[in-house]
Amino acid sequence: MKKKTIFQTLLIMIILSINAMATIAPKAPINAGAYKFTENSTRLSFMDMSDNEEGFRVYHNGDIIGTVGAKDGNGTYQYITLRDLKKATLYTVNIVAYNNAGESTPLIKSFRTISIPKSNVPAQPGAYIGVWNETEDSVRISFMDNSDNEDGFRVEDLDGNVLMDNIPPKDLNGTYQHITLSGLDEGKLYFIRVFAYNESGVSIPSSTRAFRTKCSNKSSRVKKTGQSISYYPKDDGDYQKGLTLSYVRDNIKEIVTDNITRLQWQDNEDAKTIIKNNYEASNYCSKLTLGGYNDWRLPTRKELFGILDFSRVHPSIDTNKFKNINSDFYWTSTTHEYSVGSNTWVVDFDNIRSASPGELRTSKHNVRCVRVVSNL
After folding, report:
1. CA–CA separation, 319 and 270 (whole Å)
2. In the CATH hierarchy, which fold is given to the domain comprising 129-212?
3. Segments making up each domain of the chain, as ranges
4. Which of 6, 42, 112, 301 could bridge across to 334 with cysteines, CB 3.0–4.6 Å?
5. CATH of 2-112, one of 3.40.190.10, 2.60.120.10, 2.30.30.140, 2.60.40.10
6. What is d(CA 215, CA 210) in angstroms, rounded to the nearest whole number?
7. Contacts of 228-231 spanning 24+ positions with Cβ under 8 A
């Protein structure tokens, strides 16, 4: 009987102890942190200092803006994401632990939500550009308007030359624009991009589109020599016949495109430094991979002679486009008619000439490979 009384007494004391703990409010959390800020949310962390809380509340101006249940135990960190906040706003919040007995003293934390500036620059037009109705001096193009805040559009080539500007916007976002580019050069290869603009700036460009204007029946794709001064009557400087030299350089691919002949020329450092005999040069070009292309070859005499600029010497080439050039002989694939098998034509880029009767194929000279633009 005595043992039973002792057991009952202990049980009552345990129950009373548990009830007493339940009537004690939890301790306040500590070490509040705030991070992962957005325009309308943030993440809070804090350390739990009690083992009798039911959870935590976050107050702002007397309103509960977040709750989280108790997790693990005393000495562990709790996390809560506050949502539906106002952007660019300073918040001072009270974090409390609570149970049936009440709430802890508050842990105060201040933070500010951010404001992400929105760009007012128009969106990229296109990105695809349609091309049709090519003539000797004009072409019709189309592109999609992807903005509703542009002041206009302009069309440029890859060198930044403006082909058409102040093109007014039409209708609404998601509609196609149609314009005619005029005053173009006959028989020329163009690479164009379209930009949208307003007072805040210029959009990123559309994708690049290539096209070539037509040649009339009266003209052919014979280029001017580049000679602009006449030294004697009826010389090249006097006549000024042919199409104006026109090249586009791709600095990333290190390739120069001849807009008239549809040829692309190697223009990396090798074009200035590599010295090989004719057999080695031919093999080198056939194995070359440059700009994503692997169909390179050694140029013919006529092709290589065609990029000479007769208005220049030392070197005799357009150095604004061709950046890697040695003022010396370059190999061609054309064998000399009087010494087939042993001699091959070379072109001199120092002083504009082709060596005759060519050079022995075992001689060492510079190499510049060529390929045909297959899609134009």
Report:
1. 16
2. Immunoglobulin-like (2.60.40)
3. 2-112, 129-212, 236-372
4. 301
5. 2.60.40.10
6. 16
7. 228/311, 229/311
Residue of 314 and 244 predicted with greater confidence: 314
Q: Would you call the peptide bond into 101 cis, given omega within 30 degrees of 0 as the criterion?
A: no
pLDDT tens per residue across span 131-168: 989 888 889 999 999 988 899 999 998 878 899 998 88
Residue 313: closest CA among 327, 331, 329 = 327
Tokens, residue 342: 């042993």
Supply the pLDDT for residue 115.
Answer: 81
Give the integer Cα–Cα distance in Å for 32 and 108.
8
Residue pair 180/163 in contact (Cβ under 8 Å)? The answer is no
pTM of the model: 0.44
**DSSP reduced 3-state for 125:** coil
CATH number belonging to domain 236-372: 3.10.100
Count of CB atoms within 10 A of residue 27's CB?
16
Q: How far is CA 207 from CA 6, 158, 204, in A?
A: 90, 11, 9
In angstroms, what CA-CA distances link 326 with 274, 323, 330? 10, 10, 9
Any idea how long the chain is?
Answer: 376
For the chain, how far is it from start to end, CA to CA, in angstroms?
A: 110
Rounded Cα–Cα distance for residues 59 and 36 (Å) = 19
By CB neighbour count within 10 A (0-12 exposed, 13-18 middle, 19+ buried), where does 158 fall? middle
pLDDT digits (tens, 9 = 90+) for 274-329: 999 999 999 999 999 999 999 999 998 888 988 988 778 889 899 999 999 999 99
